[in-house]
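Friendly challenge for the regulars: who can give me the structure tokens for this chain first? No prize, just bragging rights.
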Amino acid sequence: MEIINKKENKLVFSAEIENSLANAIRRYINQIPIIAIDEVEISKNDSPLYDETIAHRMGLIPLKNKKQKGEMILNTKHKGYVYSGELKGNVEVVYDKIPITLLDEEQELEIKASLKTGIGMEHSKFSPGLMFFRNESEIIIDKKFKEEIQKIYPNIEIKEKGDKIIFLDDKEKEICDVCEGICEKAGRKAEIKETPNLIISLESFGQLKIEEIFTKSIEVLKKDLDEVGKKIK
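First reply, four minutes later:
Bragging rights claimed.
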């Protein structure tokens, strides 16, 4: 396994793993229990948005996944934008500058919201993030294209073999189509060979740390596989 790029809410790495297993892990991200605003009771809404619109926006505000249930209150009458950070309760919001609505002078907003733990298969508000992957490829093309490839992708390590050049697909973005296009314009053909490695990208919406999304998805998948194994026995 090789870490390619790591940020607070994004992780890109390469690993030798079967496509079917990677896809199962990807799908099980939406089986991880996540807390979110579920039911909203709006006592007063003088803003220009309908109650249903405000409730929908609040449901999609990511919350720190440390509780199983709880309650949040929003009671404000200031002029200007109302942000997610104004929600008060026993669970913290991940991002405090998500706009909910806009109030004018002498307008008020009073809301009580109950929280619920669910999974992304039920509703997208319970989804902790995204995962996508692709095969790492080895590209073999005519040596005459070396200078052009180096200009476009200066960080690519290129090896020469006879009248050909050989290099691996860029770790950050797929470049096979670009290389094939360059060759086709000159009436040549690029040879693309898939390696055993996958380039896996994970993105977190903030409820869980990026590493937790991957490990918890595996935990839930393993639990379901154990249950299947028990039933077969």
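The two ends are 34 Å apart (CA to CA). The chain has two domains: 2-30+130-202, 35-122. Your move, everyone else.
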